[in-house]
Amino acid sequence: MAAKLRKGDKVIVLAGKDKGRTGEIQAVSPKTGKAVVEGVNIAIRHQRQSQNSQGGRIAKAVPIDLSNLALVDANGKPTRVGFRIDGDKKVRFAKTTGDVIDA
User: Fold this and answer.
1) Residues 68 and 14: beta-carbon distance below 8 Å
2) pTM
3) In this structure, are strands 42-47 and 89-94 parallel, antiparallel, or unpaired?
């Protein structure tokens, strides 16, 4: 199945503690159905001090479920993603505006 959300896409959070916040996808894990979004779903992790790094409390972006994310269209609104054939290529498009997401 083709991926509707990919690394580098600008998305908005639809549900959860960060509802309404936007960010860029840094990593996607299709197997677990989750994505890491920059600046969203931040958790504090305790790091033990080692020779290479300082210890302490480190803020880290934790994966969020793909069902709680929506792509942001040209108008800045959340949109669903569809697929269509343009010429001989399969492309993603925003359902609200009809614009092609990736050329």
Assistant:
1) yes
2) 0.82
3) unpaired
Give pLDDT tens digits for 41-91.
999 999 999 999 899 999 999 999 999 999 999 888 999 999 999 889 999
Q: Tokens in use for 50? A: 């080692």
Measured CA to CA in angstroms, residue 67 lies from 1, 54, 63 at distances of 15, 36, 12
Give the whole-angstrom CA distance, residue 10 versus residue 22.
7
Instruction: Describe the strand order of the beta sheet including 10-13 as a list of residue ranges.
Output: 64-65, 34-37, 22-29, 10-13, 69-72, 78-79
Structure confidence by residue, pLDDT tens digits, 13-47: 999 999 999 999 999 999 999 999 999 999 999 99
Q: The tokens 């959070």 sit on which residue?
A: 13
